Amino acid sequence: MARFATDRLRSADQIERWDAAADVVVAGLGSAGACAAIEAHRAGARVVALEGESEPGGTSATSAGQLYLGGGTGLQKACGFEDTPEAMANYMKLACGPGADEEKIELFAQRSVEHYEWLVDLGVPFKPSFVPTTEATNPPGDDGLTYTGSELVHPWVEHAPPAPRGHNVRCEGSSGHVLMRALLAEVERQGVEVRTGTKVERLAIDGAGRVVGVGASRAGAAEPIWIRAEGGVVLCTGGFGFNREMLARHAPRLLECLPVGTPAEDGLGLRLGLAAGGDALRMSAGCVILGFSKPRSLVRGILVDARGQRFVNEDVYQAVAGDAGLYRADGCVYLILDAKTWAEPVVPYPIAGEGDSPAELERALDLPRGNLAHTLELYNRHAADGEDPIFRKGSEWLVPLDEPPLRALDLRCGTSPYPFFTLGGLRTSPAGQVLTPEGEAVAGLYAAGRAASGLPAQGYNSGMSLSDCTFFGRLAGRSAAGGSRNP
Length: 487
Ligand SMILES: Cc1cc2nc3c(=O)[nH]c(=O)nc-3n(C[C@H](O)[C@H](O)[C@H](O)COP(=O)(O)OP(=O)(O)OC[C@H]3O[C@@H](n4cnc5c(N)ncnc54)[C@H](O)[C@@H]3O)c2cc1C
Fold this sequence. Notes:
By secondary structure, this protein is of the alpha/beta class. It folds into three domains: about 10-60 and about 175-285 and about 420-480, FAD/NAD(P)-binding domain (3-Layer(bba) Sandwich); about 65-175, no CATH class; about 290-410, Alpha-Beta Complex (Flavocytochrome C3, Chain A, domain 1), CATH 3.90.700.10. The protein is built from twelve helices and 21 strands. The strands form five sheets. Strands 1, 2, 3, 7, 8, 9, 10, 20 and 21 form a nine-stranded mixed sheet that branches. Helix 1 packs parallel to helix 12 and helix 4 crosses helix 5. The longest helix is centred in the N-terminal third of the chain and has 20 residues, at about 100-120. The radius of gyration is 24 Å and the shape is elongated. The chain starts with 8 loop residues before the first strand and ends in a 5-residue tail after the last helix. The structure holds flavin-adenine dinucleotide (FAD). Flavin-adenine dinucleotide binds near residues 59 and 262. Flavin-adenine dinucleotide binds next to helix 1, helix 2, strand 8, helix 8 and helix 12.
């Protein structure tokens, strides 16, 4: 009889009674879990999906409902844009940050058109209209296509032909609930057994070390239930942004930021995978948003740090700005504007200081003497020629900041919200198998969505999480149903 160092694992031969059995057990019914359940069922498996909360949907249902898709989707074509899987893969390899999984990116880019059609076939609606904004995670109306990343700006634009790839599920405003409604309707149509209020807390392991089932608690029930999984268990339990202890251990900078999503993202599924021998990747990574660029005209200002120096081209996507603000500028960020670039920000950031000259503003912000003045002199001189030789901000945003009063918006972390969700998670193969530190598959265990480390490594564009969840959720479900190693 196997004994385990952690209470999270239970030897299968210690389990006196199995309450139910299936081929595939899916833990967590957000977008990743729903897609895993659908594809596992379509592959012929008997599927049980367990959801800890009283309703399925997770963070996916509360999201803006934007998916990063491309390579020539029907929506891109309908809006008159050309794109190729190669251009998309090249962009993503840079945009997903250092350590991005190139195999996953290649696979996703090659099959992105098919994935779009899969979603459309399920009834996920996309309006064939383009809105030219790069400022918002969710465009104001119900338009279908938009830019959602840094495709048009330096340095990405030099690496890949830009194309809009943000596919917005049709709805006025946030539309994650529309996406989830379509996915859950299919789960129901197929007759997948869904048990809500059932939180997976343990894994059952057989004598050969294979994951063969789960133990789950139910609200109001004293005893856990045990459900056997003949083919595999798929962990789709979301990230760990709401677990402060895990953040303190793996991503301490994120403790200063504001977790967004649902509190069910407590990292338990991820810890189950670790307990079973799985590895975790990039646990410090997060999508951190510095959403200062609403209205977009605010990009005409400059972002400076505690030294009064710039640290990024201000026209980047807001998660790139968040990353740079938190890590490069150490969370001390001001947006400097003059009278002609001033606009009331949509997010009510406080004004940190004001002055009729750079020297006055420096004093108001308590910045080192002369630094901000020097930054502004250099920036203004080149901006007058429509150039930014230091950070290469796009020329349409370049204007000298020389009309008093000068104002600084307070974008310091702590004063301003830095919303985030975690990107680190279980190491998985493209087929969704949970891998050990040696790169071997943990038999019978799969993961997808934010419980896993997926497409975005340390770089994020809006839409990449839902794409990752839905696409790799499908593959993980299929693998668990067939025991396949090939995606
Ligand atoms: C406001 C907001 C807007 C966003 N907009 C976008 C966007 O437009 N595009 C984009 O790509 N990303 C967006 N994101 C991020 C994206 O929504 C999430 O990263 C993604 O939905 C995660 O999906 P998931 O399936 O991994 O997890 P979830 O959707 O959170 O699903 C996990 C499910 O597992 C359940 N669960 C957890 N633990 C257990 C357990 N132990 N047992 C059983 N069940 C469990 C949870 O209750 C939940 O239902 C947004 C996030 C927020 C907060």
